[in-house]
Structure formats: C-alpha cells, structure tokens
Amino acid sequence: MEDAAYVPMPEGLIVRGEALDALASRSPWLFSRIILVMLSLTVLDLAAIFVITVQPAPKSLVLGEVLASEIVMHQALARAEQAIGHAKQSALGAREMTMKAEDDADQRITSLRQAMKTRKMLNDRIDGDLEARLN
C-alpha cells in the first residue's frame, strides 16, 4: 500500500532546469551568458527570417510557377476551343438538317406543281374533248 503523503522527487529535465536557474541566480556571470546565448539564438532566427523575406526567389522556382500558370492557361484555352468545336459541329448538324428539310419541301412543291400542271393539261384536254363532242 502506498503512503498518501509520499511525493515523488522530480527528476530529469525539470531538475536540471531548476538547478540551472538556481546557479544563474547566484552567479551574475552565468546569468549574463545565458541571456547572451538566448539573444544570439533570437538574432539568428530573426536573421534567417529576414533573409528569407528579402532575398528574391530562385529563378527555377519562379520559372516553375510561371510554367505551371501557363500550363493551366493553355488547358483552359484547350477546353474552350473544344467547346467551340462541339458548338460548331452541332450548328453544322442543325444546318444540314434544315437544308435537308428545305430540299424535301422543294421536291414536294416541285412534284405538286408538276401534278397541278398535269392535272390542268388533262382538264384542258377533257374540256376540249367535251366541247368538240358537244359542238
């Protein structure tokens, strides 16, 4: 059975950090060195950020982005051209159907006119024959 009043002793990184704090509080030289190390690490991090933001991007990266955007643009143009081609094909198909319907209508009208001419010619013959018989 464990004792309820038992508190385990801290160990590892926590103990080392506390020991370093205790040493630094007693030694101004060590405290100043710790501050200098922290400041130099901060300056290094800020310098890296400054270099990254100020330095121009490498040409290969810029060219890659330009080429990627041109590829996307050409793909969009190709899709648009393909849509235009499909629209032209459907318009041509509709035009062919219209022309075929007009040709069919023209043939029907021509055959009707021919039939009307034949009918008139036959009616004129019949009328002529009737007049000749009646006179």
- Biggest β-sheet strands, sense, barrel: none
Shape: rod-shaped
| Tally of helical runs | 3
Q: Helix/strand-derived class?
A: mainly alpha
Domains (count): 2
**What sequence of helices (H) and strands (E) makes up the elements?**
HHH
What helical percentage do the residues reach?
Answer: over 70%
Number of extended strands: 0
**N- to C-terminal separation?**
150 Å
Our Rg estimate from Cα atoms comes to: 51 Å
Q: Beta-sheet strand percentage?
A: under 5%
Mean pLDDT: 90
What this model shows, in words?
The structure is a single chain. The radius of gyration is 51 Å and the shape is rod-shaped. It folds into 2 domains: 1-55, no CATH class; 58-135. Helix 1 (13-26) crosses helix 2. By secondary structure, the protein is mainly alpha-helical. It has helices spanning 13-26, 28-54, 59-134. It is built from 3 helices and no strands. The protein is 87% helix and 0% strand. The longest helix has 76 residues, at 59-134.
Describe the SSE topology:
Elements: H1 13-26, H2 28-54, H3 59-134
Helix pairs in contact: 1-2
Give a short summary of the structure:
With 135 residues, the chain is mainly alpha-helical.
Structure keywords:
mainly alpha
